[in-house]
Amino acid sequence: MMAKRWADAARALDAADPLRPFRARFYRREGEIYLDGNSLGLLSRDAEASVLRVLDEWKTLGIEGWTGADPPWFSFSETLSRSVAPLIGADPGEVIVTGSTTVNLHQLLATLYDPAAPIRKRILADELNFPSDIFALRSHLRLRGLNPDDYLIRVPSRDGRTLNEDDILAAMTGGDIQIVVLPSVVYTSGQLLDMERVTRAARERGILIGWDCSHSVGAVPHALSEWGADFAFWCHYKYLNAGPGSVGGLYLNRRHFGKSPGLAGWFGSRKDRQFAMDHTMIPADGAGAMQIGTPHLLSLAPLEGSLRIHHEAGMERLRAKSLALTAFLRELTEAELAPFGVGVATPPELQRRGGHLALIHPEALGISRALRRAGVVPDFRPPDIVRFAPVPLYTSFADCVEAVHRLKTILETQAFATDEEAAGLVT
Ligand SMILES: *Cc1c(COP(=O)(O)O)cnc(C)c1O
Fold first, then answer.
1. Which of 74, 89, 105, 355 could form a disulfide with 219 if both were Cys (CB 3.0 to 4.6 A apart)?
2. Cβ-based neighbours of 384, under 8 Å, separated by 6 or more
């Protein structure tokens, strides 16, 4: 059993929560506590309405939708980009909603990486990076005729869970690095890197720096332009709740405007020249030049409704509640779950925390499955992490108490071993 004081504390926090009304705008399953919004955010009524409107425009307008829809499909990406830009701390022209996380990384490397540079040819990433980013970096080097084993350097992690900014800075001092690509938030432990410090250090050394903001966009405020980052890329299906496979985003600092897109296509053209159908491309002035082909309208539409919610809630209030939720979850975990061997991998400091809390336990996989059976949706990341992402738009403090209560029951009854596992059939 859990002490009543937790429920009381949660009730007081929920009552004082200015974001509480937003919960009703999301589709949530009765009795279920959804803590996986850092993998796939839930559908809001606003996002649904945007998709239905675009479907209706297709139904009633056909091809005329490109110019006659409201807003017109032809410039829908640009329209949404203006609303994403403040979330990343950029000028509107520096952001474009397009592609997907991995494709956008490929495009940015194709545009910015120079394999013919005389000495600085290496790319620096890190040992904890999301696999897709590493695959993209390696394949890009191969495409450019360079052996990734020699040209991709990964900053090691001291503890296997977090990165130390001093180690990143040390790896940038050799004079051989051309580009650094790092995650803003480490997807396993939830560590938020000191993006400002690392960005400024890279700039001082003449190194290009790009951030994978998949786990921070919509969860953490950014000031990429002020810090001087060269580029960034992200998805919108995590904290921005734009749906599975929704169109991603990228940021290109204005100092790189005018560079030819490495992977060119007609949607990167200046809008007024796109239908001139000339074989000489005139790229758009800003980040829009990084677009390739026809935008995926039906995967773009939900972002419109999601962004409306986000701006109504306000990034500062979202971050404040997110920090309060993860602090509360940590307190609950330390008090109620530590006796069962549950630890926390996420750094405790506010400024080093992204949007989720990473719990550690040797039976993390079994625990994650047992939680789903018990109506709590977390996710598992090998080898021993259960991620709990309380999303400020739709998770309450009472949800945190209930999730920890259900987890405690699982631990008390050892309900995390399935019958097969208990019988030793599955390892
Ligand atoms: C979610 C995520 C991705 C996903 O890449 P897609 O191309 O959108 O599938 C990439 N990098 C990081 C750090 C992520 O968290």
1. 355
2. 360, 361, 362, 364
CA distances from 54 to 48, 66, 190, 300 (A): 10, 11, 35, 10
Q: 353 catalytic, yes or no?
A: no
What are the beta bridge partners of residue 353?
191
Write down the pTM of the prediction.
0.96
Choose the catalytic residue: 74, 76, 237, 267: 237
205 an active-site residue?
no
Say what the pLDDT of residue 427 is: 39
User: Do the Cβ atoms of 337 and 315 come closer than 8 Å?
Assistant: no
- Which tens digits make up the pLDDT trace of 287-339? 999 999 999 999 999 999 999 999 999 999 999 999 999 999 999 999 999 99
With the C-alpha atoms ordered 86, 92, 94, 96, is the resulting torsion angle positive or negative? Answer: positive
Residue 358 parent element (H or E): strand 357-360
- Cα–Cα dist 327/318, whole Å: 14
Instruction: Give residue ranges with CB within 6 A of ligand 1.
Output: 100-102, 130, 132-133, 183, 187, 212, 214-215, 235, 248
3-class state of residue 182 by DSSP: strand
Greatest alpha-carbon pair distance for the chain in Å reads 72
Per the annotation, the verdict on 238 as an active-site residue is yes
> Which of the residues 121, 369, 387, 408 is marked catalytic?
387
Of 40, 41, 43, 73, nearest to 55 (Cα)? 73
CB 102 within 8 A of CB 139: no
Q: Is the separation of the CB atoms in 137 and 152 below 8 Å?
A: yes
DSSP string, 205-222: TT-EEEEE-TTTTTTS--
